[in-house]
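Below is a concrete protein record.
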Amino acid sequence: MSAGRQGPWGGDERRYLRIPPPTSSSSPFLKTTAPGGPPVPRMKGNTMTKTTPATLERDLDHTRAAYKEEATAVKHAHTAKKAEIMKDPMTSDLAKREKVDELRTQTRAELDGIKAKQQTYVKDLRAKVERELLGSQPSDANSVLLRRDAADRARRITDEKEALAVLEDASRGGDDSLAHAVGYRARNSGWINALDAYREAQPGAADSATALAKLESLDRDPSYNFANQITYSAPNE
C-alpha cells in the first residue's frame, strides 16, 4: 500500500489535516460552547458582534426554535417508549403503571433541563447586552472609583425630572460614566423621557438599550410565556 504524501515536517500529510468539529447549531451567528450548553453569539475576530434589536430577535427566535425542537424530540421519545411498555405482553398491569410513572418522571426532568438551558441562554445574552451598553470601560482603580461614584449618584436620583437634569450635566461635562449610570437608572425606573434623552446623548448605545429593554420585558410578554408553557408541557397521554 502506498504511503500518503509527505507533510511539511515529514510523515504522512494526512496527519496534519485539521477538520473543524461540527457545532450543534446551524445558525451562522450562534455556536454552542459545550455539548448541551446554551448557544452564544459568535465572535468576529477578537470583537464580539454588537447586538441590535434585529439581530437579537433573529438569534432569540433561532435559539428558541432549537430548544423547542429538542423538547419535541423528548416528547416523541416518551410517547414511543410508553407505547412499547403498554404493548409488552410479559409485563403485568401493575408493572406497566410503575414503568410509565418512572418514564413520566424522567421526561419531566429532561424537559425541565431544556427549559433551564433556555433560561441560561437568555440570562447570558442579557449580561452580554448590558456589557455592550456600558461600553468598553477602563479597569484602573481611578476609573472603577469614578463609575462607583456615578452609580451612587444615580441611585440617589428621586424622580425623572432630576434624572434629566443630571443627564444634561453629564452630557455637557463629557462624563460618560455618569450618563451610563443615569441611563441604567432610567431604564429600571421606567422613566421613558430620561431614557430617550440618554439614547440621544449616547447614540452608540441606542441599539443595545433597545435590545436590553426587549430582553427585560420577556418575562412579562404573554405570547413568550404561553409559547414556553406549550413547549415544556408534559406530553399528551
Summary: Residues 168 and 179 are 9 Å apart (CA to CA).
